[in-house]
Design brief:
InterPro entries: HAD-like_sf, HAD_sf, TPP-like. This protein is α/β, with parallel strands linked by helices and 270 residues long. It has helices spanning 48-60, 71-74, 103-116, 120-130, 160-169, 191-202, 217-222, 233-236, 252-267, and strands spanning 3-7, 32-38, 41-47, 62-65, 86-89, 94-97, 100-101, 136-142, 146-151, 173-178, 181-186, 206-210, 225-228, 244-246. The chain is built from 9 helices and 14 strands. It has a 5-stranded parallel β-sheet, sandwiched between helices.
Length: 270
């Protein structure tokens, strides 16, 4: 039976220049491969070693990129290795099969959201009303599914995100702070639900996962084994669970370590 590997991308497998965390002397820094270009500028990287590990993983398991990115943002990424047959975008809102959206899956997601949480419009209105333009740089809606703010972290009031989380909780939404972005995401919109669907379709009996943010917690809990890096929301809150390994590595070297763990487990599933 195939092994399914579902991994978050940003700050888990791929890293912006600001998130690389290269603390070693320059002469000892790992060689980097650019895997994303945006507006003619290099945007995301992984080590060359990680790129080879990911290529090997594509031959050993069903690798499923699992991201909160929109489809358009995901399609900017050029990962090494064989093209994934499945990818999960918009935090589970879109399941891509050979690069195309599965319309039936998306329709089922929309039905769950309509039944189980407050509408997107209510959340967007609250964000516009409560977020101070002094520290908000952008208001964004992703795929008509969830909203996020781009903020100046040094100006962001310490308690504002906590207050937003309480407000959102009462309406069936969750809040996550990742770098300069504050996400408001419906609780029924999960990576784990989409991963379970891919596992059903592929017949996978072992699921491996990795992620760094609170939006990845459900993904990790749904997997048979999971890993989180030494940075990010999960590390900051010391989040853990059975079968989850907290790695000490931070930055781009954490991505390399995660891929080593994936490959080792995929080759020895027993």
């Amino acid at each position: 039976m195939p092994v399914l590997v579902a991994s978050d991308l940003d700050r888990t497998l791929i890293y912006s220049s600001a998130a690389l965390a290269l603390t070693m002397p320059d002469a000892r820094a790992p060689r980097l491969l650019c895997v994303e270009v945006h507006e003619a500028r290099p945007l995301s990287f992984m080590t060359e070693t990680a790129a080879q590990l990911l290529t090997d993983l594509g031959d050993a398991a069903v690798f499923v990129p699992t991201t909160t990115r929109t489809r358009k943002q995901y399609q900017r990424i050029n990962l090494p290795g064989p093209p994934p047959a499945y990818a999960i975008c918009a935090n589970g809102g879109h399941l891509l099969v050979d690069g195309a959206t599965d319309a039936d899956w998306h329709a089922s997601v929309l039905a769950r959201l309509a039944d189980e949480c407050a509408p997107l419009e209510e959340v967007c209105e609250h964000l516009l009303r409560s977020a101070d333009p002094v520290w908000v740089r952008k208001h964004r809606v992703a795929e008509d599914l969830f909203a996020y703010l781009v903020v100046e972290r040094e100006l962001l009031p310490e308690d504002w995100v906590k207050e937003l989380a309480v407000w959102a909780e009462n309406r069936g939404w969750t809040v996550s702070l990742q770098g300069r972005k504050i996400y408001a995401v419906p609780k029924p919109l999960t990576k784990s639900a989409a991963v379970r669907e891919v596992a059903r379709r592929t017949g996978a009996e072992l699921t491996l996962a990795a992620g760094d943010s609170l939006l990845d917690a459900d993904l990790l809990l749904a997997a048979d084994r999971g890993w989180r890096p030494g940075h990010g929301e999960l590390a900051d809150t010391e989040w853990t669970a059975p079968e989850i390994t907290a790695l000490p590595e931070r930055g781009v070297l954490a991505g390399e370590r995660i891929l080593r763990e994936f490959l080792r487990a995929a080759r020895q599933p027993a």
